[in-house]
Amino acid sequence: MAATALIAATLAGAPATAWAADDTTPKTPFYKSGPEGDQEVFDYINTFAPLKDTAAIQGYPVTGQDTKEITLDQVKKVYSPDQAAKDAQTLLEGFGSTPGAENFGTEERASSKEDKDPGWLGNWDAKSICGKSSDEVLNRTRKLSCGFVGKLDEKYPVMKTTDRVPGGTHITYVTQASIGTEEKETKGWKAGGKLTFTASPDNKGASAEGSFEYNQSTETTKKWTDMAEQRRDFPVPDGMAGATFQAHANAGWYIGYIVQKVDNTESPSEKIVAIPARVLIQAPTDNVPLTWVGRQY
Questions:
Q1: Model-level pTM?
Q2: Which of 170, 190, 215, 285 is the most exposed place for a label (fewest CB within 10 A)?
């Protein structure tokens, strides 16, 4: 047990190598299971892929939305629509007040499933209307800006976990990932893309495959890139009951609102629509999509 603890402690404290493109023999850090180990994993990834507490996306988040229904009550526990409207003015283009326009305030939608505006926007759903130019919106009598603002809800989510293997096992995984960019542009901003990846043992056992969609924030400075095939050594120390190999996205789930700034140019007036949503957004300063860690059980 002493030897096991020493190995685990050494690997847990190892320098963060993540998935560096110039590192042909990346090492996989090892952590215990449970909340304490989870926090160590978060601290490790945070050293090279830090996440902002608040993030924003210019334009509609075409990819990477949570498919589960997100309710207004859920979001309000951490983020008010009024604060989101204020943050949109700071973080997004097109959300400033219109001089001389009557302000109708912020309209709240009850859930992510209620994304249509039957009044000002002719019952268009948010995704469709946000993808249109101002010239196409209701005979040019409406001006529209779209975006997303949210608070960090879940750090570095697990995207794949391999099968459990017993102590004393020595496995080498061959890993590879490809990035597909989302071509649809809204207000000149590419919303994000799709990541597919594999982790295949070269001795025996089934390969682990996964995929997910993500977004880039307004503060993204390094976009995720395709990763070349790499090999990872994954030794499970003697004395452990078992361990798994875990892939974390270098990203965070953000809960907040898809916001729409609507201007009625016929009778000068303005309002903001706030639609509850939960969106996966990449770490803004890291071009590596995944971090693999070992977890002891």
A1: 0.87
A2: 170
